[in-house]
């Protein structure tokens, strides 16, 4: 699936170094999760599998944050687990040169196999349920 036009516009609205990071992330994610729906969700780019958020990125003070919704279970040392009750994990980039494509591909493969059900979290009153066996 191609990148949504709104994501392209989001990327283009960033400062030059951030724009380069965002375009590269978008390109790698779209290439390696071609079946994923992508759109701007809660003001930043997110990719979904069957309506479940998988990966997204956003501009933050520390840089461009690449977040995997179920990343805390990927067992990847460069992904830092979130501090809340969710299973997210992130990495920050301040230059496109910091993005290791091999790592990204591995994370994206794991994001397909390791998922928690964020799509139905409201229906389950905040309770996260594992979607896949890992």
Can you walk me through this structure?
With 134 residues, the protein is α+β, with helices and mostly antiparallel strands. It has a single domain, classed as Aspartate Aminotransferase, domain 1 (Alpha-Beta Complex), CATH 3.90.1150. It is built from three helices and six strands. The chain has helices spanning 5-12, 16-32, 101-113; strands spanning 37-41, 44-49, 52-60, 63-68, 80-81, 89-93. A six-stranded antiparallel beta sheet has the order 1-2-3-4-6-5, covered by helices on one side. Strand 5 (80-81) and strand 6 form a beta hairpin. Helix 1 packs antiparallel against helix 2. The longest helix has 17 residues, at 16-32. The radius of gyration is 14 Å and the shape is globular. The mean pLDDT is 92.
Which range does the strand content fall in? 15-25%
Which secondary-structure class do the elements indicate? Answer: alpha+beta
Largest sheet: 6 strands, antiparallel
The SSE order reads HHEEEEEEH
Walk across the major sheet and give the strand order: 1-2-3-4-6-5
Provide the CATH architecture: Alpha-Beta Complex
Estimated helix fraction? 25-40%
CATH class: Alpha Beta
List the uncertain runs. none
- Number of folding domains? 1
* CATH topology category name: Aspartate Aminotransferase, domain 1
Radius of gyration: 14 Å
How many DSSP H or I helices?
Answer: 3
Which of globular, elongated, flat, extended, rod-shaped describes the shape?
Answer: globular
Got a strand count?
6
